[in-house]
Amino acid sequence: MFYCREGELHQMNRRYDKNKFECVVIYGRRRVGKTALINEFCKERPTIYFSALNASSLENLEALSKAIYSYKNPDESANAPTYRNYDDALEAITAMSREQRLVFVIDEYPYLAKAEKSISSRLQHIIDHMWQESQLYLILCGSSMSFMEYQVLGYESPLYGRRTAQFKIHALTYKEMTVFHPTLSPEDQALLYGITGGVPHYINKLDVEDNLDDALLENLFNPSSYLFEEPENLLKQELREPAIYNSIISAIAGGSTRANEIATKVGLESSVCSKYLKVLLDLGILKRETPITEKPGKKTIYTIDDNFFRFWYRFVPRNMSAISAGRIEQIYTKAVKRYFSDYMGLVFEKMCRDYLLRYADSLPILLSEVGQWWGTDSKERKEVQIDIVGTPVDGNEYIIGSCKYKNEKIGVDELELIRHYASVFGRGNKYHYFIFSKVGFSSALEALGKQGEVTLLTLEDIYI
Prior knowledge:
This protein is an alpha/beta fold and 464 residues long. It has helices at 6-17, 34-42, 57-72, 86-99, 109-115, 119-129, 145-152, 186-196, 200-206, 212-219, 230-238, 242-253, 259-266, 270-282, 307-315, 320-324, 328-335, 340-359, 412-425, 443-450, 459-463, and strands at residues 22-27, 47-51, 102-107, 136-142, 165-168, 286-289, 301-304, 367-377, 382-392, 397-404, 430-437, 455-458. A five-stranded parallel β-sheet has the order 2-3-4-1-5. The longest helix is centred in the C-terminal third of the chain and has 20 residues, at 340-359.
C-alpha cells in the first residue's frame, strides 16, 4: 500500500502533465519512503530507472546501460551491451526523450557521483544544451542529505539552478502514521511511533497484526528478524568504521550528551569525535539541540533523533544474552515492557510539540517555533528544563508546557512548577500554560483548566 505522500505525488504529477523538461531532486534519510514515492509516480509511465551502485565507474556504466537497454528491449535485458562512455548513454536517453515523454530516474545519485566524478558537470552540460527543450522528466534521488543539499542543490554545485523542484522527504508524523494500523489504541499508536519514528519501512517490517507485544517479539527481539540487525547493517552499509559509530551511539544512549563527554566515553580526541558526530548528524541518526531562543554553544547537546535506533540501543544490547538464548519472551514483561513509559517520555514531548506546530486548531499566539529550554535557576542553584517553549512570530507572549507520560493523573503541583520555570526562563511578559498527560488530570487541576489558567490535553486528545 502507498500512504501519506499524496502532496508530493500531486505536485510531481502536475509537473509531468506540463510536458516540459523537469529536473526533480528527491532526498531524505534511508528507509523514509523515497523509492516508494518514485515507484508510485512512475507506474504506467515510460521510465528508465537506474539505481546507482556503491561501486566503480565502469560497474555503474554497465548498470546504466542495462537500464537503458531493458527499457528498449524488456525481454532481452540479460544481453545488454555496455555503452562506450556516459556521454553515449546520456545521448541515447536524449534521443528517446525527443520522441515521447520519458522519466529518467537516477536513484542513489551520490553513489554515481562518487564513482564518476564528472557526472554532475556532464548532466549540467546536457541539461543546458539538449534536455531543456526535451520532454525528459529527470529525477535525482539520494539518501546522503549533506551530499544532496551541498553538492546537488548547493550554490557551488554544477547542477545549481538546474532543478525545477525539490522534495525533502521526512519521516511521518505521529498522526500521519495511524493510517497503517487505524484500529490500534492511542497508547499503542504512540508506542509504535516511539519504536519506528514514523519511518514507513520500519512500520512495515514490524508487521503489527493484533498485538504490538507479539510483533516486537517476532520481528525485533528475534535474531532471525530483519529489524534485529538493522542498526548494525545500516552502519556497515553507510560507514567505513561502524564500530566507532556504534560506540558513539551507545555512549549517547547511555546518557553522554555533550561533545566532550561523548569523546571521553569513546576514547577519542574531541576534534576527531566531532567529525564522527557530523556524519551521524548528516545521516539523521543524531540531532544537535540547543535551548530554544539561544545560539549554539556550550549548552549544545547531542541526542538520538532516529527513534528506531534509540529504541534498539535502549532495549536490545542490555538483553542480548536473553535474546541469543531464546529466553526474551520469558523476561519481556519485566526487562522491556515495564520501561516503556520511561522510554516514551522524550517521544511524547516530540509528539506534543508536533501537535502544537501542526495540528492544534486554536492557540493563544501565532507560533514561530516550538522546542525545549534548559538553564540554571540562580535562586535555587540548580538546572531546570522546560519540555515545551513555544515562541511567538511577533510580540512577547510564550507558550510554556509540560509533558508527562505516566500512568497517573497530573495534579496542580505541575502547574505551579512550570509557572516557576517560566519565571526562570524570564523572556516573556505573558505566558500561556499547557500540560499534556498520558491519562488525565486531578479534579483540582481540571477546575483550573476550566477557569482558563491552563490548557489540559491527554494523549487521546492529540490524536483526535
